[in-house]
């Protein structure tokens, strides 16, 4: 049965923001988010936390672990969280206050890559020091987050006599943020990464560029941002990127860059109009059918696969992005390639008139870029469209599964099944469940579908992916539904996505949280009570 969760509210401080996160009141009198896999507290009791409490890592030095310990120690000593529903337990002062949390890590060298071991064991006895053991630094960070949630009150008290073993069900648990359609200052991104971490998620998928703006300052191609951004104060410099990446490492969060190509590249035309087709044209010509549009929303432009200069520019961008981001995953986009945009180019018209196809165009593009990305020791992530689009797609032979991951966003379980049954690893971001921008109206203002005096629901209220995705919708979604065991093993995890046509820094936190917290628990420890 589904866990009857969200019966009360846990207030989690990220150190940067305060999140109201719904919690379960089922099995214990104290709540940890996300719910641990194993939580044993046979005789609920608590004692005082010593005013001189310390977190110690005897003879172990790691820059990111040290940063996390300092952060959590400050949080524990200053937050003085008061639970909305006080725990029912035996509070005693007859035992000495807890003085120390000893942290022990087996492997200090394991990098923050996909599938790194994030398990931990936390023991808080009634007497003596608490002990947190983990295989890696990143598992220790998850355990520190759990420990911080077991301390509350003023004076500070801590749950004792408990044992936790914990580890995630899925290795990839993330949030996607689009910073092209609207710009987000670095501080907003850092705050979001901090919140990702306290929810024990581990991926910030950064959709950096799109047709609307190119805010990333690429050292070898500075004109792309100088001319394609919204302005000189709306750029991400290499210094900014390094700051974000390092902040991610300090919080156990991978920063996965996405440079969406060959579609969604209209902003590139400000610097290189000769490599972009249908740039600056009206996205849906008057009187034309939807299938003859040039883009799916305002902001036209796609890279021209037949122009050699396209690859000269793009490879410099790819190389610089791979240098700026140490993350082994490189997201190359490849979604929503619109036939009409490519057909607007004379060279492509000639190619098609001589027997070529649009799918062959995409294959030319993939064959010219995919091997280069792989040569930089990267695994390439594409949106599902690259093999599943109805009109423009490449054969699976063009994308070896060992170097390719596909991210699904259409048709729910059906497309996930198609991807894994073809042998590919999958990241699930189903728009029907995980798109956080849905239900807030459409991007286009002058839209005739609103001129309707008899119904207020035409066109799903003007939002293509309406309705709004509630926490219940997100929490209940089973990303491996209908898959065999072997197929389910190819599902790496999931991401909720905030596309920014209708979002900006003003609404960022409210759009993402606490709904993303629902996915965080589902992917960490599941959404079903196996004992009920």
Automatic annotation (TrEMBL):
<feature type="domain" description="Beta-hexosaminidase eukaryotic type N-terminal">
    <location>
        <begin position="32"/>
        <end position="150"/>
    </location>
</feature>
<dbReference type="InterPro" id="IPR015883">
    <property type="entry name" value="Glyco_hydro_20_cat"/>
</dbReference>
<dbReference type="InterPro" id="IPR017853">
    <property type="entry name" value="GH"/>
</dbReference>
<dbReference type="Pfam" id="PF00728">
    <property type="entry name" value="Glyco_hydro_20"/>
</dbReference>
<dbReference type="GO" id="GO:0004563">
    <property type="term" value="F:beta-N-acetylhexosaminidase activity"/>
</dbReference>
<dbReference type="Pfam" id="PF14845">
    <property type="entry name" value="Glycohydro_20b2"/>
</dbReference>
<dbReference type="InterPro" id="IPR029019">
    <property type="entry name" value="HEX_eukaryotic_N"/>
</dbReference>
<keyword id="KW-0378">Hydrolase</keyword>
<keyword id="KW-0326">Glycosidase</keyword>
<dbReference type="GO" id="GO:0005975">
    <property type="term" value="P:carbohydrate metabolic process"/>
</dbReference>
<comment type="similarity">
    <text>Belongs to the glycosyl hydrolase 20 family.</text>
</comment>
<dbReference type="InterPro" id="IPR025705">
    <property type="entry name" value="Beta_hexosaminidase_sua/sub"/>
</dbReference>
<dbReference type="GO" id="GO:0030203">
    <property type="term" value="P:glycosaminoglycan metabolic process"/>
</dbReference>
<feature type="domain" description="Glycoside hydrolase family 20 catalytic">
    <location>
        <begin position="170"/>
        <end position="526"/>
    </location>
</feature>
<dbReference type="GO" id="GO:0016020">
    <property type="term" value="C:membrane"/>
</dbReference>
<dbReference type="InterPro" id="IPR029018">
    <property type="entry name" value="Hex-like_dom2"/>
</dbReference>
<keyword id="KW-0325">Glycoprotein</keyword>
<feature type="signal peptide">
    <location>
        <begin position="1"/>
        <end position="17"/>
    </location>
</feature>
<protein>
    <recommendedName>
        <fullName>Beta-hexosaminidase</fullName>
        <ecNumber>3.2.1.52</ecNumber>
    </recommendedName>
</protein>
<keyword id="KW-0732">Signal</keyword>
<feature type="active site" description="Proton donor">
    <location>
        <position position="336"/>
    </location>
</feature>
């Amino acid at each position: 049965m589904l866990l009857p969760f969200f019966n009360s509210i846990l207030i989690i401080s990220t150190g940067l923001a305060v999140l109201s996160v719904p919690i379960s009141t089922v099995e214990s009198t104290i709540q940890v988010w996300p719910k641990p896999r194993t939580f044993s507290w046979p005789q609920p009791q608590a004692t005082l936390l010593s005013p001189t409490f310390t977190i110690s890592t005897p003879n172990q030095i790691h820059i990111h672990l040290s940063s996390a310990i300092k952060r959590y120690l400050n949080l524990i000593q200053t937050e003085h969280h008061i639970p909305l529903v006080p725990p029912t337990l035996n509070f005693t002062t007859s035992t000495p206050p807890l003085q120390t949390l000893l942290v022990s890590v087996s492997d200090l060298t394991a990098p923050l890559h996909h599938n790194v071991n994030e398990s931990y064991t936390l023991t808080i006895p009634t007497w003596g020091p608490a002990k947190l053991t983990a295989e890696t630094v990143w598992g220790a960070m998850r355990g520190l987050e759990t420990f911080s949630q077991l301390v509350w009150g003023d004076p500070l008290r801590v749950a004792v006599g408990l044992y936790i073993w914990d580890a995630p069900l899925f290795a990839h648990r993330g949030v996607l943020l689009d910073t092209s359609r609207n710009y987000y200052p670095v501080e907003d991104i850092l705050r979001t990464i901090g919140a990702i971490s306290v929810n024990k998620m581990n991926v910030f998928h950064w959709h950096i560029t799109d047709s609307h703006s190119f805010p990333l300052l690429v050292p070898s191609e500075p004109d792309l941002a100088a001319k394609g951004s919204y302005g000189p104060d709306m750029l991400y410099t290499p210094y900014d990127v390094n700051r974000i990446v390092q902040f991610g490492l300090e919080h156990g969060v991978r920063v996965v860059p996405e440079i969406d190509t060959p579609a969604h590249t209209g902003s590139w035309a400000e610097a290189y109009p000769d490599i972009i087709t249908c740039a600056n044209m009206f996205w849906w010509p008057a009187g034309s059918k939807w299938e003859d549009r040039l883009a799916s929303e305002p902001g036209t432009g796609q890279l021209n696969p037949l122009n050699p200069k396209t690859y000269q520019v793009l490879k410099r961008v790819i190389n610089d992005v791979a240098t700026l981001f140490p993350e082994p995953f490189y997201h190359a986009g490849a979604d929503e390639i619109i036939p009409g945009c490519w057909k607007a180019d004379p060279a492509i018209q000639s190619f098609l008139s001589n027997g070529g196809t649009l799918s062959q165009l995409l294959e030319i593009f993939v064959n010219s870029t995919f091997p280069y990305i792989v040569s930089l020791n990267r695994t390439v992530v594409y949106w599902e469209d690259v093999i599943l689009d109805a009109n423009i797609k490449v054969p699976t032979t063009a994308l070896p599964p060992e170097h390719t991951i596909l991210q699904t966003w259409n048709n729910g379980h059906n497309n996930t099944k198609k991807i894994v049954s073809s042998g590919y690893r999958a990241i699930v971001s189903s728009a029907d469940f995980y798109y956080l921008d849905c239900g807030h109206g459409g991007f286009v203002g002058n839209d005739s579908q609103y001129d309707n005096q008899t119904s207020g629901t035409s066109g799903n209220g003007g939002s293509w992916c309406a309705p709004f995705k509630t926490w219940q919708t997100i929490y209940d979604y089973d990303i491996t539904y209908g898959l065999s065991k072997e197929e389910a093993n190819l599902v790496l995890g999931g991401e909720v996505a905030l596309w920014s046509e209708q979002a900006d820094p003003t609404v960022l936190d409210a759009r993402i949280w606490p709904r993303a917290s629902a996915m965080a628990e589902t992917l960490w420890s599941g959404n079903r009570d196996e004992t009920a």
